[in-house]
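Thanks for the sequence, V.! I ran Succinylglutamate desuccinylase right away. Repeating your input here for the record:
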Amino acid sequence: SRKANGVLWLTPPAEQANPNQEALIISAGVHGNETAPIEVLNMLVSELFSGEWSLACPLLLVLGNPPAMVAGERFLDVNMNRLFNGAHGKPEYSGLAEGRRARFLEEMCRQFAMAHQGLALNHYDLHTAIRPSKRERFALYPYVEGRSVPAGQCAFLLEAEVETLLLQHKESTVFSSFTASTLKAESFTIELGKVEPFGRNDLRRFQGIERALRRRFRGEAAPAVQPPFDHLTVFEVVHEVLNTGPSFRFHVPDDVANFTEYQPGTVIWEDDQDDYRVGTAPEAVVFPNRAVPVGQRVGLMIRAREVYRAGSV
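Predicted structure:
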């Protein structure tokens, strides 16, 4: 049933088998201009509603920020993917439309999780990026203390042609962190390529996620992992760059691609008291943004930790 603009809660008939014993939350459009995942979900829903296949598992489909989607903007007032895990309750956000929407989406996810407590809960929050990336498709695994990534989730990412996974180092205010920490879901933020306007996406570049989601929706078994998508490079955060104040200098260009690598000894930032140099092994930068207030994150330095190969956990 349609719960609100951009929220669709689908429950299969009671007699329908759910072979994977799971319930799925799939979200897109938390940033309104990230259109390709929205088009992929629209296509899958059209197939379902036209009877091309049957849904096997409970499914909550979320289009995060419909007003921003209509406007073709990332957001209207404030970045909605900084408003979850209760951040929407801060006085500066609670009166804004995006703050109210984040609170509503949290409540919908809570209700969905409560309704399907016996099933494995999974959340995939789908995005595309403005910034270029040395690794086109990558996933972020929210930090939950004591938890490691299940092999089945690694295999799903490879099935979706996502070859890179970044392990987050602390809880955050993004949508997937809320579902992971509060609802105990296996959650991922998945970056699938480049931002384009509606109608301008080359959807052939998104066939991996389209096929993988369709297979999950239908309750089918996971396929054997095939080359070239047979290994997942897992990165971990080694340093969080923060704006330390007026003397802070960030030595990464504004237009640098995510996953750009820096050699040992390279100075990444400095101020009048301190600096940070790359350690004994190369490190890469992700999410660089010098235009943040004092105390906020300017970027993350990461390092490849391991390579997961399908079939060899």
